[in-house]
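User: Is it possible to get a 3D structure for a protein together with its bound compound? The compound here is pyridoxal-5'-phosphate. I've pasted both below.
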Amino acid sequence: MNDGILERLRRLRAADAPTHGGHVLAYVYDSGMPELDELADAAASLARPVNGLDPTVFPSVAAMEREVIRFVRRAVHGGRDVTGSVTSGGTESCLLAVKTARELWRAEHPDAVAAGVRPRLLAPVTVHAAFQKAARLFDLDFDPVPCGSDGVVVADALVARLAGDVALVVVSAPAYPSGALDPIRVVAAAARARGIRCHVDACFGGLVLPWWRDVPDWDFRVRGVTSMSADLHKFGYAPKGVSVLLHRGRRQHRAQFFATTRWPGYPVVNPTLLGTRSASPLAAAWAIVQRLGDSGYTDLTASIARVADGIRDEVERIPGLAVMGHPIGPAIALVADADAPRELRVDPHRLADELARHGWRIQHQPGFVQSDGTRLPRSAHLTLTPVLERSLTEFRRALGRAADAVRGRRPADGRVLAGAVRALGYGADRVPGPAASWRLLRLAGAGRIASDRPMATLLALIEELPAPVAEALLTELLARMSEPR
Ligand SMILES: Cc1ncc(COP(=O)(O)O)c(C=O)c1O
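Assistant: Yes, that's possible. Here is the predicted structure of the complex:
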């Protein structure tokens, strides 16, 4: 009977994009070391029945957490004043960093609170969307600072917006959409001088940059950095469900906790957002960190650096295609070369669709109009993993061929469809409900998303629609996918 159940799961999994082998350049982080997966499975299985809610009953949880935090803290040059928690992932680490900063800002600014001032969350526009979510959940104003078309923010533009209502300024190491390392030193120093907390979001790069060559100081060596997030389920190579949030100073760390004795049940002390917590991802990450140690991460990072060099070399040889800005670390964004004549340009979304037809998956990122009216170009994101080194030649060839196939093709245009949506009366102040959203999606030919379907048209529509409408449509698309019929 179990065999039948597992056989069905295997069939379901067959429709997924491959998680191993390096053909999917987003979402998955394959070290190329199957023995790590085996170790992680065994460790996760040993810890499976444990409830991470209460380390007084299950002290193994505290022991593993302590060792994982110590490893990450050392890698990012945190001293003994730095402590932290293991969370369920990057988003939870980011949410908690913001919640903590808001709690402390409120405590430190009673007059502003009494006067009804809302705390502000300041960051470059390329900061991960998890911070928008945090601002919404914890009631802060989100203040995104525009970047250049190379995805780089000017430090002075951020510094100029630092003021007493800023509860937290966030910089990324690196930013996911561009791969750029934000000007951490300048921003953190300016924040420190004004008594403002500064979070480094190293969810993406936190387990790579410590071993990357020639990185400007970005971590706890920078004195104004007060907290940092780093994901073990990305370049820590652990299975999903584990990240670390570090704070400078116990007082700040403790402000992250929720504790109550004000109910008739057991006293509740939650360091993170969840109550009951699986110990399996922690155990898997703990085992992998033990196994890899400094030297393991050094080797894996060297492999990523060779992949990054190889891909950059290849893109340089491809007419009409360019790398956005100057990425540092394991992310690269590809854009059409704005200096090339139009008939030679390679639209990154056409490129992504063409690559998908040949079994390679890179991630579409829509063009984006910033608050000052300037536009960040549409791009395609590549997450570079160690395993890709083995098929780097094959990937370079596929990239060149795909570029040849789409060079000069007009980018998908969402204006006609977006016009139709507007003609039906939908806009930022009139958002379609579930039924109307579904009708619009079907009209746009996006009623069914398979993992290998061309996405350029849907992305072009997203670029053109007012954000609230696009968000309603995408919500509907995802909700329908898992809705029982
Ligand atoms: C820089 C950065 N921060 C935060 C996150 C959110 O992480 P998660 O998807 O684990 O919630 C990501 C995810 O890619 C990221 O790249």
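The pocket of pyridoxal-5'-phosphate is lined by residues 89-91, 94, 128, 130, 172, 176, 201, 203-204, 231 (CB under 6 Å). The chain has a mean pLDDT of 96.
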